[in-house]
Amino acid sequence: MTARHSLPLFCLFTAVLLLCASCNTQAQESTPTTLSTSRLFGDHMVLQRNQNVAVWGWCKPGNKVTVSLNGQNISGVADHEGAWKVFLKPMKAGGPYVMNISAGREHLQYKDVMLGEVWVCSGQSNMEFQLMNAQGYAEEQKIAGQLPVRQFLVPERMSLVQEKNLPGGSWVKAEANTVGGFSAVGYFFAKELAAKLHVTVGIVHSSYGGTQAECWISKAALLTSPVISAAAKNQPDTWDAITAKVDKLVKAYAYNNQPVVNYTAGQLAAEPVSFFNSWRNGIASTWKWQTLFGPFRGTGFMQRTITIDGTYANTASVLQLGQTDADLVIYINGKQILKGNLPADRKLNLPAGTWKAGENSLVIDLLSDQKNPSWFGLGLNGTAKDVNLSFGSFTINMFDNKWRLMPDFSKPYKIEVMPDNTVSTLYNGMISPLVGLSIAGVAWYQGESNADRAHEYRSVFPLMIKDWRTAWKKDFPFIFVQLPSWGPPTDSNKGSMWAEQREAQTQALKLPNTAMAVTIDLGDPVNLHYPNKQPVGNRLAWTALNTVYHLQGYSLSPQYKSVEFKGNYALINFNESDLEVKDNNGEIRGFEIAGADHKFYPGQATLINNQVKVWNDAVPSPVAVRYAWADTFLNDNFYSKQGLPVAPFRTDDWTGITERNKYPVF
Length: 666
Description:
The chain is α+β, with helices and mostly antiparallel strands. Strands 2, 4, 5, 7, 8, 9, 10, 11, 24, 25 and 26 form an 11-stranded mixed beta sheet that branches. A 6-stranded antiparallel beta sheet has the order 12-22-14-19-16-17. Strands 18-15-20-21 form a 4-stranded antiparallel beta sheet, with no helix packed on it. Helix 4 (about 185-195) packs across helix 12 and helix 10 runs parallel beside helix 11.
């Protein structure tokens, strides 16, 4: 009841915020008359130690601006547009200080300013993942107030132009009542750095869930790329035009560039399973995460082919579709089973004879969005534990990507443009306003949304790194998380998008001043947003302590260096010599070996004098070896003596399963 009564006040407050944001943008577009700074500067801020510190803002053109901090008084003059910038000389770690800024009779004062280490933490949902949802949150709450860790949260914003300032945001100290809103990976990263460097660490958190790297690259940089330039050239310059383009793209994607055909649920229910082969595959989750169906807001259909052994055809069963509370109609083999809502326990008890031996067609007509949580939208809301079909002790897991999806264009719908329907919009709105901030480096966790185009990511990811460095006019350290384990079991014969994406990430290490935290032994096969984020943050921190701060005692994951093929076996060399096998029998899991026929077999592998010998009697003349080449590989036992997993790799360059996939240009 309270939430319902407070809704009008919330709406009014939101409207005021939007109006303020609009006024702020308009003020920047016109000549400023009052003294202001970038939103990045304020109470509790952390400034980068041992570097020139840029401070900038706006005031009346021609006014002299003086910034005072820690005994320094540095002045500058606002240009004809009212923009000003000054540089404080390098200072050692310390604080708290007070920053005073004056221009004529105007004066600003920012308190509790610390000098320490400043890192931009960016990426998609696993960087965005909040500490309040992470494993160990309660324990971190208890100690948060004792930690010299602070966060500036960059508001989510798409823009078609490069913004000069942010619409909001402020520096927040880690406290019991605030730390839950911190990036979990960013928090653990900063906590570890602060403990080892003995300084205050500030993270500027600029992330947006479910986004591709192309969103985070400037248009100017994209136009230089033969891989992705067409997308930048063809992007309209108004939101209305983009929305119309995306509408056409969604329909073209749904119908494989064929004309739209509207069906009723009854018609679809009567179709054989082969009819749905032309529909797009999707996962049993929100449609917002379903590739080009993400911007669709309306109703739609989901179909799943279920193969039943004759043993269970005459057995009662229980169908679970997670915690889905949407209005829906369910059909099995043409027969309507349910109309309305799932039972309170979300379990649909089906009598014997519902299913037949062989292939069965389950069709769901989704008539509404999920009601709780309201953000979920269209789709099935469940997990691997509760999206299934069970016949007593035998269960068929349906929390997978074997569903077929089709929007219902015959009913009212709208298109909500998402970052992934555009290029450069997050760079414009969430990175451009940060450019020039004095930072120690960037910590990046992204790549999940690019995995289906991993081969393109080989070009796109380095382009992004170089683009940001060009904007900052500095080759700052760029460290990143290699994707962890997620998804169903795969191997080299089936192919793995995530393995190819990890390889693309590894190739970015060719750029100077980059480093990678390997997390193949972390993650969850059925939960993309796994809660155990502390090891990820710690490994990022150790990566920085090794490569940026050059502290002793911190190492990186061992990497593949070279291979020697000798008769019926291969010898693998690594860039580290402190390898160990965490099994008494000494056999290393996860290796595969192939001959000229490109057919892979499980490899027997042992560690001999810091080389790995790999063989299989079925491969008398091996030419290729792969390690941990799978979406998920959590049973690894091959580590450095410091406890870091050996990075996945392959010795061949054979065509992968993502090489044919290209960024959709419309």
